[in-house]
Every structure is written in structure tokens, then in C-alpha cells.
Design goal:
By secondary structure, the chain is α/β, with parallel strands linked by helices. It is 34% helix and 19% strand. It folds into 2 domains: 6-110, 2-Layer Sandwich (Nucleotidyltransferase, domain 5), CATH 3.30.420.40; 124-287, Nucleotidyltransferase, domain 5. Strand 6 (139-145) and strand 7 form a beta hairpin. Helix 3 packs across helix 10 and helix 6 (219-237) packs across helix 8. The protein is globular, with a radius of gyration of 19 Å. InterPro entries: ATPase_NBD, Carb_Metab_Reg_Kinase/Isom, ROK, ROK_cs.
Length: 311
């Protein structure tokens, strides 16, 4: 049996970046770097990767970054940050700054696509018996709800791309009757991110969502909006699992129960695989917990190593 490969991973978030070393899927070292300016943050990450590689060479690098990102390898700005509300980061060359210091295969994707890939291979999607129909999952969605709302999809073992990557946070959903909350998205107002993200909850409630009691009736509108999002995913992608993570998703099991009930009610029996008996296995927290993100970078590194066309 061949030894597990030595891999490098970077999980770049809006407030912090993790640079990690892994042996196979086992993370053996991880360093946190605050996300400040691109030059400072990416420069520190690149220096660490170079130092580690000189001591023990890496076989591949996976970069899982917040977006939006240019992921078309034929584009002149491949691996760059597209227009983003994060000050100073529009146009930043994420891929070039990090992959450029290592003479090994490398790839980049969104952090949520990476997390979806990790969950499909090693988490909820690999649990088999809980997936509708049995066996490993062939279609899975990973959602993180916190400062914003991001979603990634893993389909038949690969992250989903098209013209770019999914931007589920900005879909428009049918509002709950009588809900007049305007939303907080600077682009769209009441898109799903503008309705249920952490800042949206603080605006709805007047205080952060984690200070609101579980039985507060105002959660009904939040659950309605989240259920609209989940229903859209199930109707368009026929996903076997919709994993809801992040501070809003993981921190409130009571909210997920409300969402599950509303998904079943809103779909009204149209999807035969979504029932009161199955919804608990379909809409659930990530099986990998807070390790889905870093393991997403590892999964991307493994894909880079397996892909002979990396350069």
C-alpha cells in the first residue's frame, strides 16, 4: 500500500485564513492568519507554505476560498477574486499568490464547494444508509449561514461549476404572508442572504439572533425563508442532503426542526422522496462539523494530485 500523500491546504475566509499540512485526509498542522489586506494575508500564507515545502515537500495544494471567484482556467483572471463587498479584495490573485510559490499540482474552488466535496466523500454523503435510496450520495448541498450565506454543491463526486460557481445566497424566494422585513443585502434587499444571515437576523430582531428565545414567534418567518431556499434546492437539484452549517445553522437545532416541518408543508407532497419520515436525514447539520471547511481544502488538494492537467 502506498503512503498517504503530503498535502497542503488553504481555507481563506473573510475574517481568518487557515494554512494546513495534511497526510492524506489527516490534518497534522494548522496555522491561523487573520484576513486583512490581500498582500499581507496571502503573503504570510505563501511564506508559510514555502517554508513548510522546503522542509518536507508537498505533493499538491488545495485552496478553498470565499468568493466570488473566477474558476474558468481558460480565463485571464483565473483564480482571482471577482467584485466583492470585502474591501480591497476585488481582483486579488488568490491562486497566483499561493500556488505560485509551490512547484506542485494546485487547484482552487470556493470554500463551500470544497466543504460539499469533503462531506460527500467523508461525511454525510458517505454515510450511505441515511441517504434516500441507500448508498453514497450522488448530489449534496452544503450551506453555511453566518455573516453571509454561501452554498456549494457536490455532484457525482465533483464540485459544481458552470458559467461560474453557485451563488445561492442571492436567490429571491416567496415571502411569508405579512412579513414586511426589507432585508439587508446591498444588492437585492430581500434575497435569502438578506433575510436569514447573521446581520439580517440582528436587523430583524434588533439584537443578535443568538439572544432570541427559541419559542419567539418571529423565528417562524426565518424558518419559512430557509424552507423556501431548501425547497428550491430539492426541486432544482434533487439533492439527497442539504447540510446547513455556520453559526446560524449549527447553533440552533430548534430552528432546523422548524425548517424541516415547513419544507414538508411547502412542498405539499410533490417530491416523493421528501416526507416527514425522511426530512430529518435530508436537512441536517454537516457530519464533519467545523472540519468540513479545512477538509474541503484537503479534498481539493487530492483532486489536484489526481488531475494530470493541473498546469
Amino acid at each position: 500500500m502506498s503512503a498517504a500523500p503530503d498535502l497542503a491546504g488553504v481555507e481563506l475566509g473573510g475574517t481568518k485564513m487557515f494554512v494546513l499540512r495534511a497526510r492524506g485526509r489527516e490534518i497534522v498542522e494548522r496555522v491561523m492568519i487573520p484576513t486583512t489586506t490581500p498582500a499581507e494575508t496571502l503573503g504570510a500564507g505563501a511564506a508559510l507554505l514555502r517554508r513548510w515545502h522546503e522542509a518536507a515537500p508537498f505533493e499538491a495544494l488545495g485552496i478553498a476560498s470565499f468568493g466570488p471567484l473566477r474558476l474558468d482556467r481558460a480565463a485571464a483572471d483565473f483564480g482571482h477574486m471577482l467584485p466583492t463587498p470585502k474591501p480591497g479584495w476585488t481582483g486579488a490573485d488568490i491562486y497566483g499568490a499561493l500556488a505560485g510559490v509551490l512547484p506542485c499540482p494546485a487547484t482552487i474552488d470556493t470554500d463551500v464547494n470544497g466543504a460539499a466535496l469533503a462531506e460527500m466523500r467523508w461525511g454525510a454523503g458517505a454515510e450511505g444508509e441515511e441517504a434516500e435510496g441507500g448508498g453514497p450520495s450522488d448530489c449534496l448541498c452544503y450551506i453555511t449561514i453566518g455573516t453571509g450565506l454561501g452554498a456549494g454543491f457536490a455532484l457525482h463526486g465533483e464540485p459544481l461549476h458552470g458559467a461560474m460557481h453557485p451563488e445561492l445566497g442571492h436567490i429571491l424566494t416567496r415571502r411569508a404572508p405579512g412579513d414586511a422585513f426589507a432585508g439587508v443585502c446591498p444588492f437585492h434587499g430581500d434575497c435569502i442572504e438578506g433575510l436569514v444571515s447573521g446581520p439580517a437576523l440582528a436587523e430583524r430582531f434588533g439584537v443578535p439572533g443568538d439572544l432570541i428565545a427559541a419559542d419567539d414567534p418571529r423565528w417562524d418567518n426565518v424558518a419559512h425563508d430557509m424552507a423556501q431556499m431548501v425547497g428550491t434546492i430539492l426541486l432544482t437539484m434533487a439533492a439527497r442532503q442539504v447540510l446547513i452549517g455556520g453559526g446560524v445553522g449549527v447553533g440552533r437545532a430548534d430552528l432546523l426542526d422548524r425548517v424541516r416541518a415547513k419544507v414538508v408543508a411547502q412542498l405539499a407532497g410533490y417530491l416523493p422522496f421528501v416526507t416527514e419520515d425522511t426530512i430529518g436525514a435530508i436537512v441536517r447539520p454537516p457530519a464533519l462539523g467545523d472540519q468540513a471547511g479545512p477538509l474541503g481544502a484537503v479534498a481539493l488538494a487530492m483532486d489536484a494530485l489526481a488531475d494530470a492537467s493541473w498546469r
